[in-house]
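Sample entry (101 residues):
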Amino acid sequence: MSQEQILTRLRKVEGQVRGLQRMIAEGQDCDAILTQIMAARAALDKIALSIASEHLDRCMDAFLLQPDGRAKILRTMQLFLKLSPAVAAEEAPAESESKQE
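Predicted structure, serialized as tokens:
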């Protein structure tokens, strides 16, 4: 995804968030509001995964040539996995449980 494509998608998300503000101000139905929140969130997740994927493609060769390259690759992979909606969903209950203790 090019920089312009990313910016275009971010502008769309910005529009969605403005729409959400308007929906809340107008007292619209909670189901409709939550649906729009999920749509904006999904769009941001897609953008983040695209950026992370391109980062991996560009940087992997450079990382392999560096002395601490393995650590940088692992750190990048951990970030990539945190961006994954499936991994984030699995981590959420553990995070909330640890906050309650």
